[in-house]
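---------- Forwarded message ----------

FYI, see the Isochorismatase domain-containing protein 1 record below. Original note from H. follows.
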Amino acid sequence: MRRVSQLAAALPKVQLQQAQKLHRSAAGTNPFRASGGGLAAHHYTPVDQHESVLFVCDMQEKFRKAIPHFDDVCVITNRLVKTAELLNVPIICTEQYPEGLGHTVADIQLPKGTPVINKSTFSMCTPPVMSLMNEHHKSVILTGIEAHVCCFHVRIYLNKLF
């Protein structure tokens, strides 16, 4: 019960109500799937905390000025990170070429011990990241920036796996 109250405190009440409403209205459909198809999953699957992992993709300082609403993405990412931490959902973070683009912004409050993996590809699905996943991980919650590149490639790769 304590975790539920902590989770409720982590998410604004309106967002929690919206998520509950979306979950109830989905009833076997995927609200993110366009009628013409697309990259969305073939069916709606509720997230199970025991089968999920949170991917935090390339939230680096050099992107702050280049990405519109970067600070808003940081706020939302922190909510996801805090919720994952409360529910014991593993978190994996990546940094694209940190020598040139910097490290994960201080705004993102990753729990101590969160693996932060350097990468030089446009996907988080690198061997070091995938080695941290196991047979119980059937769902990936993806947050981060560069949705048209990195997040897109992660989604394509994971769509083939799941």
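H. also flagged this: The helical segments are 2-10, 13-26, 70-86, 98-101, 127-130, 147-161.
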